[in-house]
């Protein structure tokens, strides 16, 4: 079996467990080539396949990809229709591979806005990968963090009203268990492509202590080498979580001893 961390010269102990990516720049990629925007989205899907497979191979626990935002419904009808068509094609084509690769698939976001046949394709894939034990692949569709947080608040209110939990017992864990990302490890690394410096309503709660990476490459040009170079940069960052560098150094020593 190939050791992918060795192949890519990565330290497996310093990898992010959970990576979230805003895959941006498909439209500009197409415009640069005088192609319709959908051509950029099509090329973008190829990168999704490449980066997903690579993430699984190097041992990432969870990969969350922003594919279509709640705000993207505002785009011209033909573009929205084209993206939905690609989505159908992607799920049908990738279904078997995702199941066979032991991936745990889920869609996050407000899926009620999607068409019935797409919801069925998603649910089928979620069910067929439910018992898998490999990487968590979450695709954010019709997703907005404000909506996700509000849905979580409503779930908690229901629990309080039903007497299943006391108001004073609500803590961060309770809240996280009501988010769409429930059960996933904390978000360690955030990537946005295409040189835009904003988070566009993506994983706002989960971003609390993520390391942020903004890259100029347009998503359809975001290849394995680029991805690995960012993951390598992540490994070099010191994450302090409010502590001092000295404390972190001691913790690392302590880990080595015990
Ligand atoms: C990201 O690419 C994909 C979606 C939002 C669906 P864009 O379509 O936003 O590409 P740009 O930002 O216009 O280049
Ligand atoms: C955000 O991209 C959503 C996805 C990549 C799917 P946008 O390109 O729609 O974001 P804004 O509106 O420019 O911030
Ligand atoms: Mg964009």
UniProtKB/TrEMBL annotation:
Membrane-traversing stretches: none
Cofactors demanded by this protein: Mg(2+)
Any one of the GO BP annotations: polyprenol biosynthetic process
Broadest EC class assigned to this enzyme: transferase
InterPro entries in the record: UPP_synth-like, UPP_synth-like_CS, UPP_synth-like_sf
Catalytic residues in the record: 24, 72 (proton acceptor)
Alphabetic keyword roster: Magnesium, Metal-binding, Transferase
GO molecular function: ditrans,polycis-polyprenyl diphosphate synthase [(2E,6E)-farnesyl diphosphate specific] activity; magnesium ion binding
SUPFAM superfamilies registered for this protein in UniProt: Undecaprenyl diphosphate synthase
EC numbers for this chain: 2.5.1.-
Subunit structure comment from the entry: Homodimer.
Protein name, entry field: Isoprenyl transferase
Organism: Silvanigrella aquatica
Classification lineage: Bacteria, Pseudomonadati, Bdellovibrionota, Oligoflexia, Silvanigrellales
């Amino acid at each position: 079996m190939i050791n992918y961390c060795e192949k890519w010269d990565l330290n497996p102990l310093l990898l992010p467990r959970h990576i979230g990516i805003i895959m941006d720049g498909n439209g500009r990629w197409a415009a640069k080539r005088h192609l319709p925007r959908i051509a950029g989205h099509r090329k973008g899907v190829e990168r999704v396949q490449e980066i997903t497979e690579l993430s699984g191979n190097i041992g990432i626990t969870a990969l969350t990809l922003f594919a279509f935002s709640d705000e993207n419904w505002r785009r011209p009808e033909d573009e929205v229709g084209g993206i939905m068509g690609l989505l159908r094609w992607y799920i049908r084509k990738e279904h078997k591979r995702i199941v066979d690769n032991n991936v745990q698939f889920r869609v996050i976001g407000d899926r009620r806005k999607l068409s019935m046949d797409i919801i069925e394709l998603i649910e089928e894939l979620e069910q067929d990968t439910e018992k898998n034990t490999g990487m968590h692949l979450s695709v954010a569709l019709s997703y907005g963090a404000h909506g996700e947080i509000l849905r979580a608040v409503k779930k908690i209110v229901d629990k309080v009203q039903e007497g299943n939990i006391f108001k004073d017992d609500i803590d961060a864990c309770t809240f996280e268990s009501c988010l769409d990302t429930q059960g996933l490890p904390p978000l360690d690394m955030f990537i946005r492509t295409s040189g835009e410096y904003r988070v566009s309503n993506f994983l706002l709660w989960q971003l609390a202590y993520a390391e942020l990476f903004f890259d100029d490459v347009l998503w359809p040009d975001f290849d394995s080498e680029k991805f690995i170079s960012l993951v390598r940069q992540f490994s070099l960052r010191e994450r302090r979580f409010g502590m001092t560098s000295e404390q972190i150094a001691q913790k690392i020593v302590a880990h080595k001893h015990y």
